[in-house]
Amino acid sequence: MSLTAGVVTPPLLFPRAFSHVLREAANMTFKFDKLYRLGAWGAAACMVAICALIALQVTFRLVDALLVLVGLSRLGMSITGVSEIASYLLVGATFLGLAYTFVHHAHIRVTLLITRLPSAIRVWFEVFCLIIALAISLMLSYGLIGLVRESLQYNDVSSGFVSIPLWIPQLVLATSVGLLCLALAEALFMALRIAIRDPASFREATANDDSEVL
């Protein structure tokens, strides 16, 4: 069992055929792997920031409670808008690791049908799935970019205790989906190359990597 960007991947949950495409791409042709790792580090930083904010808020309340117990007055220290800030940090923690998680084949897929297909047919199913995923991600990215432009145009801010410009979390979200589009495009290129050159070798190539998938 592995833990990647906050996603737990049970053994044999990810299909061997598709993991071969991603493994070969990650090791040989993922030219933007550093960008995906940077996104993962950003997601981790957001999670650390959430934990730090909540820990500080709880600490301040505990200190006030202890002061009241010993008969002293409260300090009254608190972080304004901690819940709102944490909610926006959660956006980064959730989406910045999408591309990194995809590249390291930690996304869950249901493959009861395609794993029973011959290699020459299965590789084209993988290409089809990647095309659909890329198309949806591109449409989502396009919509998010438009949302960022609208927020910048109208100077939209959050309606909580802290007025946070909405374009900031929206830009993080758009960047995250853009990185996923880039990873999907690279994986699609890799799958197409295998499908066109030697689709029958798809299963044979994965047979030698069983120990890595287990």
TrEMBL record:
The keyword Repeat does not apply. It comes from the Bacteria. Pfam families: DctQ. InterPro entries: DctQ, TRAP_DctQ. It is found in: Cell inner membrane. It is a multi-pass membrane protein. Residues 72-192 form the Tripartite ATP-independent periplasmic transporters DctQ component domain. The chain crosses the membrane at residues 35-55, 85-103, 123-147, 167-192. The keyword Metal-binding does not apply. Keywords: Cell inner membrane, Cell membrane, Membrane, Transmembrane, Transmembrane helix, Transport. Belongs to the TRAP transporter small permease family. PANTHER family: 2,3-DIKETO-L-GULONATE TRAP TRANSPORTER SMALL PERMEASE PROTEIN YIAM, TRAP TRANSPORTER SMALL PERMEASE PROTEIN. Part of the tripartite ATP-independent periplasmic (TRAP) transport system. The complex comprises the extracytoplasmic solute receptor protein and the two transmembrane proteins. This is TRAP transporter small permease protein.
